[in-house]
Amino acid sequence: MNSEKITLKPRNAILAFFLAFLFPGFGQVYNGQIKKGLIFLLITFTIPFILGFTRIGLFFLGFLFVIIIDFSFRIFVIFDAVKNAKKLKSYELKSYNNWYYYLIIIIGIITITWFYDYNLAVGVKSYKIPTTSNEPTLNVGDKVVGDLRAFNNIKPNYGDIVVFQKKDSLNPWVYRIVALPNDKLEIKNNFLIINGKKCKISFIKETKSDEFNVNEYEEELPNGHKHKIYTFKKPFEDNKNAVNEIIIPANCYYLIGDNRDNAMDSRYIGVIKREEIIAKVTFGYWGKTNDRININFRDK
């Protein structure tokens, strides 16, 4: 009788919940279902690669599908752990139902996740826009998706809105590519002159940005890409943003914000190296207003 009291112990549903929540499959191991736990853990790490292979996350509905699949599977794993824990009122402890085996499992999972990058597996990553530097294209509070594999087989091009991170920066930045390696670039009155040719500019309207009066234009880059820009009606300093003729170094790109008078871009931080470019912004899925949902930034 004494041995049974020692080896029989009911499972705690609350503990099973937290174990499954923190480490997918761990709740099943706690319940004595080690094979199921390992399968769930394997599925957790495999699903992102499958979704990444399909490239489904590069589109709004596909991105929502990725979120729903991931969330639904995690909920199912937690529910399964809690449901089975409640059934095990008289559970015979297995050899691995002790603290040091649990510690080994936790260390093993943490080690795997240390080298495992969910975003790289899926191929996309979400970013939040914190400033007005890229208005009117990107607004403060916009949540956008970056394609982490966009430039695996092709080179960045004029008009691409890219995410980059310099070595001395803690956070990623987002700006638009306006000049490619070996281009000759000038900037006069916030307008671009690339390889001796002034980019086409069309005035659209007068408006406001962050309480400043601005002019809105449509600008066309050498490859035909068109996008909108802002310039202050009354700049803080004349010729503040002027750039005399420069040559963009090999393997480097010149990035500036669409809000030309209000962006800490390549005019201040210098050219961006190819290896510093992380992703290409593809679409926005959320923002402060409903019209910021499902915006395709590939052609903006």
UniProtKB/TrEMBL annotation:
<dbReference type="InterPro" id="IPR036286">
    <property type="entry name" value="LexA/Signal_pep-like_sf"/>
</dbReference>
<feature type="transmembrane region" description="Helical">
    <location>
        <begin position="58"/>
        <end position="79"/>
    </location>
</feature>
<protein>
    <recommendedName>
        <fullName>Signal peptidase I</fullName>
        <ecNumber>3.4.21.89</ecNumber>
    </recommendedName>
</protein>
<keyword id="KW-0812">Transmembrane</keyword>
<keyword id="KW-0645">Protease</keyword>
<feature type="transmembrane region" description="Helical">
    <location>
        <begin position="99"/>
        <end position="118"/>
    </location>
</feature>
<feature type="domain" description="Peptidase S26">
    <location>
        <begin position="102"/>
        <end position="286"/>
    </location>
</feature>
<keyword id="KW-1133">Transmembrane helix</keyword>
<comment type="similarity">
    <text>Belongs to the peptidase S26 family.</text>
</comment>
<dbReference type="Pfam" id="PF10502">
    <property type="entry name" value="Peptidase_S26"/>
</dbReference>
<keyword id="KW-0472">Membrane</keyword>
<keyword id="KW-0378">Hydrolase</keyword>
<dbReference type="InterPro" id="IPR000223">
    <property type="entry name" value="Pept_S26A_signal_pept_1"/>
</dbReference>
<feature type="transmembrane region" description="Helical">
    <location>
        <begin position="37"/>
        <end position="53"/>
    </location>
</feature>
<dbReference type="InterPro" id="IPR019533">
    <property type="entry name" value="Peptidase_S26"/>
</dbReference>
